[in-house]
Input
Amino acid sequence: MFPRPAGGLVPLDAVARVVRTVGPSSVDHQGALPSVTLSFNLRPGTSLGDAVQSIQEMERSMNLPATINTSFQGTAQVFQDSLRGQGLLLLAAVFVIYVVLGILYESFIHPITILSGLLSAGIGALLTLMLFRMDLTVIAIIGIIMLIGIVKKNAIMMIDFALDQQRLGEESPERAIYEACWLRFRPIMMTTMAAIMGTLPIALGVGAGSELRRPLGVAVVGGLVISQLLTLFITPVVYLYLERAQRFLSRRAKKRPALEGPAVAEAGE
Output
């Protein structure tokens, strides 16, 4: 116990040691915790995505203690937030398309046939972006969403014609999809070439600010070229397999009431 001096005041030397040194004039806080802000600029020709990835790799190599938390602010944070929801946006777009097609064709199977070409289109767009060493930016994802609509339209041309041939002409699925591919080849090629020629100037990057729009054109052109080469082969195969699956399920549904009928009659007797 320290002796209590007269007047009720305790001298500072009794409870602390005063040392004069150099310290910060102010301490920044974020969420009631002291924080330090490190700023950076981009070199010419370097994208923000590459800079963010380099900083994250540097952070992992430094082995920071668990008591230190890191986060991006400003433009880098907006960039990360914009990319975080793009996957859900693509899934939501595909789900909405599936629902609309299911209502249109009154079937759960034929929309899957139409959407089967989206996989090749997406792979083609990503491979083209990787070939030209472009990042999957927000504008590139917008191009992939545009690509989904164009590729889906090409598949609708074939599947809609094949279904009409089956319902009206009572033809087999093999013959119906063959005629659909044969007769719809010209309009599919015309619309695809029109879309490619429309986005080719964007992919080539002509004009001021073209580097921002180039990933959109590259994604659309690459996805259309790859999907056009594969859609005429993949879509008919998927259509035939799913048509057989639908017939198999319908036959099982018709046999089930016939098997359950006698059992109900015996129970009633």
Q: What stands out?
A: Residues 79-255 form a domain with the Multidrug efflux transporter AcrB transmembrane fold fold (CATH 1.20.1640.10).
